[in-house]
Structures are given as structure tokens and as C-alpha cells.
Amino acid sequence: MSFVIAKQPVFDKKGNLVAFEVYLRKKSSMKEYPKEVPYNRATFIILEIISEYGLERVGEGKKIILNVSVDSLMNKALNLLEPSKLIIEIIHPQISIGQIVYQNILKVMDNMTNSGTRFSISEDLIQDSFYQEMYKKAHFITTSIHKLSKELELKSKADNKALIITQIETEKEYNKALEVGMFFEGNFLGPPLIQKEIHITQYLKSTLLRLLAIIHTAESTKEIAKVISTDVGMSAKILKLVNSAYFSLVKEITNIEQACAMLGLRNLRNFLMVFSINDYLTIEDPNLWKKSLVRAIIAERIANSHAKDISSKAYMMGLFSLIDQIVGEDKIVFLKEVNVSQDIIDGFTGKNQVLNSILNKAVLIEEASNAILSSSNPYSDPLLDSLEKQTQIEKDEILNLVKDAVEKADYILKL
């Protein structure tokens, strides 16, 4: 999949260019947001591009308008941009947030406002009573010309919120918007300009490089917890995971640092890798990613029984076993480019015979998993006898491996 970072000019009532809205769009359709990319990830991508090109170059000396989901407002990279040049349009989160996180977000808004940042709140967010405090702190309301109503016009006037009106396509729509709005955007006024094209493979490599650097240089779970805590989406997933039946805790954990400590470095590394790749990948056949995860869990379990010191590498081999089919690139080349451990690469080429053997067994078991689980009497199935001979793993253990791996993979991918 390819998508683009585009910027579209925004004008005031006199027709002066006052800002550029910077956003993510499908390469194939500049009107469509790539739904495969979560909103919080889009924020990271856009901020990276602005950092790469420079705020002045992207904004051409004007203000920048960024669409930022509620849960992404805690992204500390926003603080790196010049506040006086920034208008943040707050849009609905894809992950529900609790009252504690919401209160922290309101504090972030206050700090950014005091530094000169201005906020606009999307029209659809106003309808949700949960976000009324956020609405009060906003300076503008953003609405499409198609959602502009008399009710919204009266509300903006009563609450002293100027309107930013978007998606203006015709002169008639522009004249209508001029009557009530302050800032205006749409193809009638100026089409979007492509700032950069990004391929999912290219971006996944960048993501994995940063992630591997974080998780393999960190000396404690506390270090990783600091990184996770800046990402509401990732925080929610980690907390859901530790409080699930997966770990069967007696007492609920609500603190990210505690959750990371409970998982331990090895588990934390494995889950972060899965969550991060899953967030960035668009897979035409979602089964590929599930198969990879099932293989990873099986490979780790096999390694735990025979060579515990390499269980983490065995897990990574299972996880990357289908990466060539997922991203459409040579597996070894891809893994070298993201600086994956040489032992893992040697496992795929056969130089590391132990890891190669573990992966081969995991692949055999995973490929038979659907047939085993759908069998009315799997223990008596000849397939299980054949797997026992090929892998030298007892039938009971194979059956347990399959059930556990499929169940865990399904749960993790739903987080």
C-alpha cells in the first residue's frame, strides 16, 4: 500500500493564504483517508515528515493545521513544533479513553494554548457530551460545508468559536461559507499538494528500526514504559493484555509501569513487536499475519522446552517467517535492512541449525493447526501421528501447542 502526505491551502475572508492543512491520503484517491492507518499512527507519520522537511518549508511561512485524534494529543513530538505556527484540529479517537487520560489531555491543551498553539474541534466531536470541556478550550470549530447547519452557525456565535469550513468544491458553496466562516478550504480554492509519497514497506522498516532500538537497548521495563506511556493506543493495549485471562491476575493493574514490570522484558519485547507491526500493516490476506503470530508462539514454546536461552529469537523467526509475502520484499534483504539479529537471519538461511529446526517444526504444526482443530477426534487423527514423527514432539504437546497458540493469537490481534 502507498499513501501520501499532502498539504492543502487555507484562506481567510479576504482570500489571503493563512495556513496549510497537512494530512494523510490514499495515493489512489486524494479524497480518501487510508483507513488501514490508525489515527494515532497518522499523527506520528505526519510529525516525522514535518521534522524531516522543516516546519517553515512545509508551511511556507504560514500556519500548519494538523488533524490529531484525542488520544494522540499526548504525543510529545507535538511540542517540538513552533506553537505559534500550529493549529490542531481535534478529531474523534479510535480508541476510547477514560476520565483519567482525558483530564491529562485537558492539561496538555492548557499548556499548549499558553505556549501559543490554537485548537479547533471537529463538528462531530461537539455532539459527544464527554468532550464538552475540550470544546470549551477550543478556539475554532471545523466543519465540512456539507455539515454546515443553522444550528451549528448559531452555536459557534453563542460560544464565540470561529468556523473553519472545509471541502468547498463550488462557487455556490464558497459564497455560502463566506457568510458564516472565518477560514476556508477546498478544491475550489486550491487543490492539495503532495508533500511526500510513502510506501508501507518503507515505513514499516523505519518503525521496526526504532522499535528494535528501543526494546533491545533498554535495560529495564521502566525505560520502555516511559515510551509506551506517550502513546495512548499502545498503553490501552498493554493494560488490556495484562488484565486479561491471558495472565489471570487477581488484582487489576492500572499503571503502565506496573504492567510492563509484570510482563517482563522478554514478553514486553514480543508483544510490542506484534502490536507495532499490526498497527502499521495493511495485509490483503489478514490470515498471513495471524499465521505468523501462531508460528511465533509455537516456536517460542518449542524453544522453551529445549533451548530456553533462544526462545525470544525463535519467537521472532516465527513472527517474520511470512514477512516476504506480507510486504512483497525479499525476506533476508528486509531483515538485514531493519537490523534484525544475525542469528535470526542465519536461522532462515540454515546456518543456525537449531533455530532453523525449531522454525521448521513450528511451520509444520501451524500449517496443520486448522485441520487439527476442526477434527472431531484430533487425538486419533493420522495427521497428529505424522506430526509426532516429523517433529519428535508428543501428540498431547502438539495438541496443546496448537490450541494455545491459536487462542492467544486471536486474542492479541483483537486488542
The dominant shape is elongated
User: How much helical structure, as a percent, in the residues?
Assistant: 55-70%
Biggest pleated sheet: 8 strands, mixed, barrel
Number of helices in the DSSP assignment: 20
Spatial extent as radius of gyration: 25 Å
Instruction: Estimate the strand proportion.
Output: 5-15%
Compute the number of strand runs. 9
The side-by-side strand order for the widest beta sheet comes to 1-2-3-4-5-6-7-8
Terminal Cα span: 23 Å
What does it look like?
- The chain has 415 residues and is an alpha/beta fold.
- It is built from 20 helices and 9 strands.
- It has helices at residues 39-53, 55-59, 99-115, 123-126, 132-137, 150-158, 171-180, 200-217, 221-228, 232-242, 256-280, 287-306, 311-320, 323-327, 331-337, 342-349, 353-367, 369-374, 382-391, 395-414; strands at 2-12, 17-26, 63-69, 86-91, 118-122, 140-144, 162-166, 183-184, 193-199.
- β7 (162-166), α7 and β8 (183-184) form a beta-alpha-beta unit.
- α8 (200-217) runs antiparallel to α11 and α13 crosses α17 (353-367).
- The chain is elongated.
Short description:
This protein is α/β, with parallel strands linked by helices. Helices cover 55% and strands 14% of the residues.
Helix-strand layout with pairing:
Layout: E1 2-12, E2 17-26, H1 39-53, H2 55-59, E3 63-69, E4 86-91, H3 99-115, E5 118-122, H4 123-126, H5 132-137, E6 140-144, H6 150-158, E7 162-166, H7 171-180, E8 183-184, E9 193-199, H8 200-217, H9 221-228, H10 232-242, H11 256-280, H12 287-306, H13 311-320, H14 323-327, H15 331-337, H16 342-349, H17 353-367, H18 369-374, H19 382-391, H20 395-414
Helix pairs in contact: 8-11, 9-11, 10-11, 12-13, 12-17, 12-20, 13-16, 13-17, 16-17
